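Attaching the record inline, Q. Sequence:
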Amino acid sequence: MNIKKILKRIYKFFRDLYWFIVFLNVQVHHRLEKKGCRTHQNIVAISEQSKNQLIYFYKIDEKCIKVIPDGIDLQKFNPSNYSKDIREKYGNNILLYTGLMIQRKKVPVLLKAMPHVIDEIPDVHLLLTGKGQFLTNYIKLSESLGIQKNVSFLGFVNDRDLLKYYATSDIYVFPSALEGFGQTLLEAMASGTPVICANKPPMSEIIENGGLTFKLNNSKEFSEVIIDLLKNREKLRRLAENGLKIVKKYEWSKVAEEYYQYCKKIVRSNYLKNKIKKNKF
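Structure, as predicted:
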């Protein structure tokens, strides 16, 4: 047996072992999470979608779940982070994606939408930030689609620069199929950038009238929505204004107050229950 075959077998063994360990970890995590949720009467979910998943998968009583969304720091994420340098480098039609390069984010759906967008708007440029196990695959896909001149994979981007990309881009594009909440959508809208996401909750619910949706996994429809917005600057401006209004209700001070009131209610309820028990004896 030659060395190449031996190395292939070793690689396959450790690859299979890795995914087996991942599978076991997921199963153990789910069991512990399920047990933990069932022993508590007060559970916070970050979206209606997360709440519905808890009810469906873990059979949690709906009355035990309170929905309180994640918040956003509006002093950090805002239009003032606009960067003239980014605009000059990438042009007047910038699309932005931020997130991991993993399957559920559906990055190929976005990449496959780009040829049609480029045909209609030749100077469009897609920026993708983030790393992940499929990054190399996605770079190769962009090359096979012949769109590499209009696409830049930026890899890891520090927070300071990420704020600039959010505020300078024309549209934030998010094809993800599954999210517990969709924090990046808030970050984009808070930065004054309209969003386009798949028509899946909770993402489609979060954006309200601060963006548009497309049918999940439909690259053609995705491209048409992108083209329509880039060609209609007045519509783009209105969506940006709507987004800035929407994110105000997610400001951390308001979310923190909601948590405070919820915890206060629980403490008071438990106090009254204990008081009643003591009086009985």
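The CA atoms of residues 249 and 255 lie 8 Å apart. The chain is about 55% helix and 10% strand.

More tomorrow.
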